[in-house]
Specification:
By secondary structure, the protein is of the alpha/beta class. It contains 14 helices and eleven strands. The strands form three sheets. Strands 7-6-8-5-9-11 form a six-stranded mixed sheet, with helices on both faces. The relative contact order is 0.17.
Length: 339
């Protein structure tokens, strides 16, 4: 008995002397180049959370995304990677409500759009459950979407008619087709090959993306709309099981770094990247035209149909689409005024 007691005490002492096994790091991935502002923003966000949790929560970037961009939601839900982001326009059947933030006629910067969208999303959309299966941490939009091509200046709907345009899907694809283009969906990283091979004549993108994907080397023309003609909405989310294993104090810290805080910082990051993109376009000699008031009016006349379609889809999910869309546009004005 004494021998057993001594063995038990020794075992207990060893257990106390051995530090608890550290929790496995949270893996994260990106499907855009490592130099893209989204990749940099995510890495910085993870580093900030590590610091705020005093190292209790650690992150590990994967060298390669475990799935093609449209499969990102499923990859996180199924645990192939713990944390990532993706545009909702890649999965429009699953994520219909975020298309509100993509409609033409929003604010002039990614920060304005992202903050306003974040406020409306958490107030009206999250309870519908389109992101069920993962722990959603933030939503945002990219910068104002513009028109770029290899063929000719686009100064009217006639100039755009029939042009093969790569889009990210969602509102951008629908809008392109409404305007008379032949719009189709392909992941952003494929754009260079699509343009250089002639499969696409042009792309709809924010200014930043032209430089990130090195499209300034193949594009010849850009048409800039005030505030852009569309934008893409994003979700940033974590594997639910991974989230559940975190201590409550660390969950609280992560949430404090998410939601509107993440939306604003990502929007600011995108706006800085858009400015660099504009400089890069000018440096590459791309011909840049500002859309005329008449062209803007003709383009926006088509937007009413997109508004009506989104309102109908929102109503089908028991969201008052017309009321919420009007509230979103008021929120855009509030954010733009500094509120």
């Amino acid at each position: 008995m004494m021998k057993l007691r001594h063995l038990a005490l020794a075992a207990a002492g060893a257990a106390l002397a051995t530090p608890a096994l550290a929790q496995a790091p949270i893996t994260y991935s990106t499907w855009v180049p490592p130099t893209h502002h989204l990749s940099i923003w995510q890495a910085n966000w993870a580093a900030d959370v590590e610091k705020a949790t005093n190292g209790r929560v650690k992150f590990q970037g994967l060298p390669k995304a475990p799935a093609a961009p449209p499969g990102t939601f499923d990859a996180v839900r199924d645990g192939l990677v713990d944390l990532s982001y993706v545009t909702a326009s890649y999965t429009p059947a699953r994520h219909a409500l975020p298309a509100m933030a993509e409609l033409p006629g929003a604010g002039g910067t990614a920060e304005i759009n992202s903050v306003a969208y974040s406020r409306i999303y958490w107030k009206h959309f999250h309870k519908v459950g389109e992101y069920n299966g993962v722990k959603l941490l933030a939503v945002w939009t990219h910068g104002p979407g513009q028109m770029f091509n290899t063929k000719r200046p686009i100064n009217s709907l006639a100039d755009l008619k029939g042009m093969k345009i790569r889009t990210g899907g969602g509102i951008a694809e629908k809008f392109g087709n409404l305007l008379g283009a032949s719009a189709f969906v392909k992941p952003a990283p494929e754009s260079y090959e699509l343009l250089s091979s002639g499969v696409a004549d042009g792309v709809f993108f924010p200014l930043e993306s032209i430089i990130s994907f090195k499209l300034d080397k193949v594009l010849k023309y850009a048409t800039i709309f005030p505030g852009g003609s569309y934008r893409s909405s994003f979700g940033f989310f974590m594997n639910q099981d991974k989230w559940n294993k975190l201590a409550k104090q660390d969950q609280d810290i992560i949430e404090k770094a998410g939601y509107e805080v993440a939306a604003r910082s990502n929007g600011q990051s995108w706006d800085r990247a858009d400015q660099l993109g504009l400089q890069g376009l000018k440096g590459a000699g791309v011909k840049i035209d500002n859309a005329s008031p008449a062209f803007v009016k003709a383009v926006m006349a088509q937007a009413k149909q997109l508004d009506d379609e989104w309102i109908k889809s929102a109503n089908a999910k028991n969201v008052d689409g017309a009321k919420v869309l009007a509230e979103f546009r008021q929120e855009l004005k509030k954010v733009a005024s500094g509120k």
